[in-house]
Specification:
Order of helices and strands of chain A: HHHHHHHHHHHHHHHHH
Helix content of chain A: 55-70%
Distance between the termini of chain B: 84 Å
Number of helices of chain B: 7
Radius of gyration of chain B: 24 Å
CATH class of one domain in chain B: Mainly Alpha
Strand content of chain B: under 5%
Radius of gyration of chain A: 25 Å
CATH superfamily of one domain in chain B: NADH-ubiquinone/plastoquinone oxidoreductase chain 6, subunit NuoJ
Oligomer: heterodimer
Number of strands of chain A: 0
CATH topology of one domain in chain B: Four Helix Bundle (Hemerythrin (Met), subunit A)
Number of helices of chain A: 17
Shape of chain B: globular
Number of domains of chain A: 2
Structural class of chain A: mainly alpha
Chain lengths: 450, 205
């Protein structure tokens, strides 16, 4: 985006970067805040339907869709209380820590091909690291509240999150291994084509891993049946017992934000990211670009005053962006489905005890994740055929993609060698391309050049 | 133009460096152990920001994962320890101040002299010839290094294996360290278990 502002609109580079950063920040904060509004409303409707009720029906007309907004106004109007025994500074800061971590993780989450605030080579790793910070918020809140219920909730949360990070990390490694990269945009793009290319359907082990991932993700964002930290039946409300008003609502914005985040991560890692089950986006975008042509021309005319080179934006580029927009909708839909599944689980299963939570993690999730990891590893090493190997006119074949990286690396090596020594023919190293060297190169590239 | 002339990188570097140092000083001057852990987290997080600013995303994420995550465990211990009143407010005696200043000062001196000995780091401006493209840096080299292939030490002129003898990676040390860590973990779990079993049999007896 910064490049667009710089080259097409002729803004100076710092201003272009600043503008791009502001746009990305505002969009992400809308995903977190508006997302929380919608998901809280959705949770009420879903729980109502599951319990054979209607859920909210009055505020805002038909489906009570303004209910959360009304609640928000109530929360803003509430008094902000700090208990007498509380550690005032930490008590006031704790909600913001969780919200900031949840928000920061979105920086690396792509919403469509290239639609990401900061394109990172190690996006998966970054998201996991930042999600790990989120647990500080309940711990600090629990400690600083000066209440035993809060402290119990915080300690449970700490034990739970630290242990669930182990199987979660193991599950996330598998898609990275199959795609040979930690870059989420590349992982998403390697699942283009029909749904048979999705990594969850790569082999039986990855399907198991996808299920384990979703379980661990539910636990790591502290949702029922793993919401021990705020078990109402035992701990009043756990770590947020003493909170009220807007600070309390920040905990929930962080919770719903990270729910969508882990669902979105699941969508990218296992369920095709922004690619639909049937690859129809590009043909539709090709048709749409003709339909919206007048609109685009009007836009060109209007923007022409501020951006002289807007006319250079081709129809192809517009079509790509339309396809990306559809991909973004696809991704949001997949993330919302993930969140809905979490709600469905929450209102269906009873809450586990703390020992059951630990047993689920250490005796089931970790061994199953390890088994799936080894299985998927052998599937890759012995090159057992997958659905992805089917000859298909659409989408990409992952082994071909790996192959192209190797070819590209060879080309890069040649260019570099020529740059260092102008006459490579004099070298005795025509045998550089011998078997070992090529093998090493292919290893290098499979390690994740992208 | 004023915006273009301004050195944004230096501005952000100063910002994050001030945050890092400021919170590190706050660790020193607070008495509550949980406050200390919280400031330490902020300080380490800000230094992760410095890594991100330098384009070293992997190292930055590693900093967040290992150091900030490790401080989490410290914080939990802090919370558990503060049940005892002598840890709630820790007063530093003057003797401890002197010792800490000697140890910390000598370390600072050592690191500062070592850093200033590097020719390129003396001037405030980077040498454009030595600054690589951020795009070209990937984690491939690190991963390959761990698995035993030092990509930076490959010798393409050698016919056959391009690996330089003795330079072919960190696979063995890496495996030894990880096995060692695993042994420590298993040992810790075992010791915790035996202790509990001993008390329970003692109670039964």
């Amino acid at each position: 985006m910064a490049e667009f502002f710089h080259t097409t609109c002729h803004l100076p580079a710092p201003l272009a970067y600043l503008l791009a950063a502001i746009i990305a920040c505002v969009l992400i904060i809308h995903v977190v805040a508006v997302g929380a509004l919608i998901f809280i409303w959705l949770e009420r409707k879903v729980s109502g339907r599951i319990q054979d009720r209607l859920g909210p029906t009055r505020v805002g007309g038909a489906f009570g869709w303004l209910q959360t907004l009304a609640d928000g106004i109530k929360l803003i109007a509430k008094e902000d209380i700090t208990p007498k025994d509380a550690d005032a500074m930490l008590f006031k800061l704790a909600p913001y820590v969780g919200f900031a971590a949840s928000y920061c993780a979105y920086i690396a989450l792509p919403f469509s091909d290239g639609w990401v605030a900061q394109h990172m080579n190690t996006a998966v790793f970054f998201i996991l690291a930042v999600l790990g910070i989120e647990v500080f918020s309940p711990i600090l809140a629990g400690y600083s509240s000066g209440s035993k219920w809060s402290l119990f909730g915080a300690m449970r949360e700490a034990a739970q999150v630290v242990s669930y990070e182990v199987p979660l990390g193991m599950c996330v490694v598998v898609p990275c291994m199959i795609c040979g990269t930690l870059n989420l945009v590349t992982i998403g793009n390697m699942q283009a084509g029909s749904f048979t290319n999705w990594l969850a359907f790569n082999d039986p082990f990855t399907f198991i891993i996808a299920c384990v991932y979703f379980t661990c993700a539910t636990a790591s964002v502290n949702r029922a049946p793993f919401d021990l930290a705020e078990a109402e039946s035992e701990l009043v409300a756990g770590f947020h017992t003493e909170y009220s008003g807007l600070r309390w609502s920040f905990f929930f914005m962080a919770e719903y934000g990270s729910m969508f985040l882990v669902s979105g991560l699941a969508a990218i890692l296992f369920f095709g990211g922004w690619h639909g089950p049937i690859p129809i986006a590009e043909p539709i975008a090709g048709v749409l670009v003709v339909v919206v042509e007048p609109l685009v021309n009007i836009g060109r005319y209007l923007l022409g005053f501020i951006a002289r080179d807007i006319g250079k934006v081709t129809d192809g580029a517009v079509a790509i962006q339309i396809a990306n927009l559809m991909g973004c909708l696809n991704f949001l839909l997949k993330g919302t489905i993930g969140v809905t599944v979490m709600m469905w689980v929450r209102w269906t299963l009873p809450r586990l005890r703390i020992d059951q939570v630990m047993t689920t993690c250490l005796k089931y999730c970790v061994p199953i994740a390890a088994f799936g990891f080894v299985g998927a590893l052998f599937w890759q090493v012995f090159e057992v055929p997958t659905l992805n190997d089917l000859p298909s006119p659409i989408g990409i074949n992952r082994s071909v993609a790996h192959e192209s990286w190797v070819v590209e690396a060879d080309r890069e090596r040649e260019i570099r060698a020529q740059a260092v020594t102008p006459s490579p023919a004099d070298l005795p190293g025509e045998s550089v391309g011998s078997f070992d060297s090529a093998a090493v190169d292919s290893l290098v590239m499979k390690g994740g050049a992208r | 133009m004023l915006l273009a002339a301004f050195d944004w990188h230096a501005l952000f570097f100063t910002f994050f460096a001030l945050l890092t140092c400021g919170f590190a000083v706050a660790v020193l001057f607070s008495n509550n152990i949980v406050h200390m852990a919280f400031y330490l987290i902020l300080s380490l997080g800000a230094s992760a920001g410095l890594f991100f600013l330098a384009g070293a995303e992997f190292v930055g994420a590693m900093q967040l994962m290992i150091y900030v995550g490790g401080t989490l465990v410290l914080l939990i211990f802090g919370v558990m320890l503060t049940a005892q009143s002598r840890f709630i407010s820790m007063e530093t005696r003057s003797g401890e101040w002197v010792m800490a200043i000697i140890v910390g000062g000598s370390l600072l001196f050592l690191l500062a002299t070592a850093a200033l000995r590097v020719e390129d780091w003396r001037s405030g401006h980077p040498n454009p010839a030595k600054v690589g493209l951020a795009e070209s840096k990937t984690t491939t080299q690190i991963g390959m290094g761990f698995t035993g292939v030092r990509v930076d030490k490959l010798d393409p002129d050698v016919v056959g294996s391009p690996l330089v003898p003795g330079m072919s990676g960190y696979l063995l040390p890496f495996v030894i360290v990880s096995v060692h860590l695993l042994v420590v973990l298993v040992g810790a779990a075992y010791m915790a278990r035996t202790k509990r079993r001993a008390t329970s049999t003692g109670a039964a007896a």
